[in-house]
Design brief:
By secondary structure, the chain is an alpha/beta fold. It contains nine helices and six strands, in the order H-H-E-E-E-H-E-E-H-E-H-H-H-H-H.
Length: about 300
């Protein structure tokens, strides 16, 4: 049965960059961050420019909120060992890119890094991980707090409000049905399906905006090409993984045969030595487990 809704990564490439569809992204981010998010604009940078011919397995988008915070959303399809480093680089680059030369450090904007990955990154069974920076005393175990002056000047409540927050969504780890509004979004990210009863923020709009049947002819053609590319990439990756595993199995089999041959040669050498020392065949058979015929042939 064909999917009723388009994949989120393709939606980011095309539909969700339209201001009329900001409500969909706002809904997803509001559910994830547990606060109401209003997108003022989507920002362009070298990292998130997309073209029609772009076949990258990483898709990203930068949103500026109504209170000037930055949200970097990245979708990664294929396995990447250094993706944690990639997350750090993306945020660091974003911070410096939007701090003009000569501006005081207090003008650095809060950054949320939302990473949606479709591969097994790290070791962990949860489907949502959050990294939120706090300074914890190594001796007393207390959390370092802001002074009243800092709270007033920067309009924040805690030190963590300054530092980036990272969200990692390992959507393949999500199993079963959606019981919360956030899980409704995770279910969609995993299955590209929005059930009629889903009621999370932005989900009502997403039900219609992201329907495959609502795409124009040109959009549907582009989407089908994109999905064909994904199928091709998945097939190539699967073939490569199979060939590597096959080669490993062949090497292990060759090693096992070599070990067996080595053991056989060693057993024959022992039997020959025993025979030269004048031991009777029954004793040699007991020592080496060789047959009478094999020993007599030596």
């Amino acid at each position: 049965m064909p999917a009723k809704h388009i994949r989120f990564d393709w939606a980011i490439k095309r539909l969700l960059r339209n201001k009329a569809n900001y409500v969909v992204l706002e809904g997803f981010l509001s559910e994830l961050l547990y606060q109401d998010i209003t997108i003022k604009t989507l920002l362009e940078s070298e990292s998130n420019q997309q073209t029609i011919e772009d076949k990258s397995n990483r898709v990203d988008i930068i949103a500026e909120t109504a209170n000037s915070e930055l949200i970097l959303i990245e979708v990664q399809n294929n396995s990447q060992l250094d993706y944690f480093h990639r997350m750090l680089y993306g945020v660091s680059n974003l911070i410096t890119e939007y701090l003009e030369k000569g501006q005081e450090y207090g003008e650095i904007r809060k950054v949320y890094s939302v990473n949606i990955v479709y591969f097994n990154l790290g070791k962990g069974d949860d489907y949502i991980y959050r990294l939120n920076s706090e300074f914890i005393g190594m001796n007393r175990g207390d959390t370092l707090e802001l002074t009243k002056a800092q709270e007033k000047k920067f309009d924040i409540k805690k030190v963590a409000d300054i530092f980036p927050e990272y969200y990692l969504l390992k959507v393949r780890n999500f199993q079963g049905t959606a019981e919360t509004t956030l899980q409704e979004w995770i279910y969609f990210l995993r299955n590209s399906e929005i059930k009629e009863e889903f009621a999370a923020k932005g989900m009502v709009e997403a039900k219609e905006t992201l329907r495959v049947n609502n795409l124009s002819d040109s959009e549907r053609a582009a989407y089908n090409r994109y999905m064909d590319n994904k199928s091709y990439e998945a097939s190539i990756l699967s073939t490569q993984e199979f060939e590597v595993q096959w080669q490993i199995e062949q090497i292990e089999e060759a090693k096992m045969i070599a070990r067996e041959e080595g053991r056989q040669e060693n057993t024959i050498a022992i039997a020959r030595s025993c025979k030269q020392q004048g031991l009777d065949i029954e004793t040699i058979m007991a020592i080496t487990q060789l047959s009478r015929e094999d020993i007599e042939a030596l």
